Amino acid sequence: MRGYINKDMLSPAIKVVVIMLVVTGIVYPLVLVAIGQIGFPYQSNGSLITINGKLIGSKLIAQDFKSNMFFHPRPSSDSASTLDPDITPYSALLQISNVSRATGINQNALQTLIELNIERNRISNMVAFAPDYVNVLQINSELVSQYPDIYNTFLKSINPHETTANISGVDGG
Question: Which of the two residues, 132 and 97, has the higher pLDDT score?
């Protein structure tokens, strides 16, 4: 009989669909999460940056730094997603005088910090495959770590239970 579908014909198809749903919808994602947690825990947990054991943000998402004591990410109008955590080396170098004026840190020391950040990013991106950039949160966290006396107010204001999307605890923000 043509066009007649019986239960015996559908049973294997339904079993395959259920098995594929379980494998591709549950097992495969869990395996990927396990591999990420075991092999790449820093990246798979959001590339979080901490200072003195306190969470200050993610290396992957721009933070809104309000104080003149910090380097600032691109304005949202210059970044399509408004989440880009990186700026060009030129943009970072343009901010040196403002940060130096607000903190008293020597401009040469700030320039060296930027250049080291560029070099680390080149190495982590296999040198030739990525343009030069400066990660704003990373460079600001290094400032706080290297100059704790200058950023003492900021260090005291970090809430360990929240990320500081609006880092303004220093210099009145």
Answer: 97
Q: Which tokens go with 164?
A: 């500081």
Q: What is d(CA 150, CA 35) in angstroms, rounded to the nearest whole number?
A: 41
CA dist 134 and 43 (Å) reads 18
CA angle 47, 154, 60 (to 5 degrees): 20
Q: Which amino acid does the sequence have at 1?
A: M
Q: 135: helix, coil or strand?
A: strand
Q: Collapse the DSSP code of 93 into the 3-class scheme (helix H, G, I; strand E, B; otherwise coil) and give the result.
A: helix
d(CA 2, CA 71): 74
Task: Tell if the pTM clears 0.70, that is, is over it.
Answer: no
Closest CA to 61 of 77, 78, 73: 73
